[in-house]
Amino acid sequence: MIALSARGLCKDFRGFRATNLVDLDVEEGEIHAIIGPNGAGKTTLFNLLSGFLKPTSGEVRLYDEPISQLAPEAIVRRGLSRSFQISSVFPTLSVLDNVIVALQSRSALPGAFWRSERSMRTFEPRARALLEEVHLSNLAHRAAADLSHGEKRQLEIALSLTQEPRVLLLDEPTSGMGSEGVARVIRLVREVARGRTVVLVEHNMSVVSELADRITVLQYGSVLATGRYDDVRRDPRVVEAYLGEEVA
Predict the structure, then answer these.
(1) Which pTM was predicted?
(2) Domains in the chain, ordered, with CATH?
(3) Nearest to 47 by CA among 8, 15, 78, 75
(4) Which helix (H) or strand (E) holds 200?
(5) For the segment 9-30, what is each residue's pLDDT rounded down to a tens digit?
(6) How far apart are CA 35 and CA 37, in angstroms?
(7) Residue pLDDT, tens place only, 44-61
């Protein structure tokens, strides 16, 4: 089954075409990586898939339901959630409270600011379970501002999981990390991918080689190649796109 697809996806910005007739099929249950040189259109494609940008033409489908014209929050309710390359957590709240706030956004509580703290605490058991899933339970009461870069990325994945996504989009999950942090995120992505479909944009090719079932390579906003890692890395067009160096 195809979980997420794009057909003829184009996005123009004042005469500049950032994505050009992109076709994409992400199979249910796979980890699918989107790679390409800087400026290839990866972030634009992610924003189109998640509803933060509307396509100039073409469409996106989630489990064969058209979602291109839906607002991001409506797409989340249909089962697609994403993280961002730049950390976006509430720095003064605890790790646990960040997750609780994200959980209550799915309920009738967000507009009811007069509700008691007891009402909010009904979400605590689920919040603690999610922190256990992303290996942050020991930091539940630490302020989010005091987390390391890698720990913030773990928290962001927990926030994405509060929306119970069938499809999870991860934007540069290992960006700015050392080898220890990268290894931790690789393990985490494998774990959260169980029973879910994961699409990630990633520059670190060792991460891609370890995680991805299939890869889509973008260049100048167009799909250059799609396939399994070992096949794509030997594609002459992909080798040329990476400045003449074979993708390791």
Answers:
(1) 0.87
(2) 1-71+199-243 (3.40.50.300), 88-148 (no CATH)
(3) 75
(4) strand 197-201
(5) 999 998 899 999 999 999 999 9
(6) 7
(7) 999 999 999 999 999 999
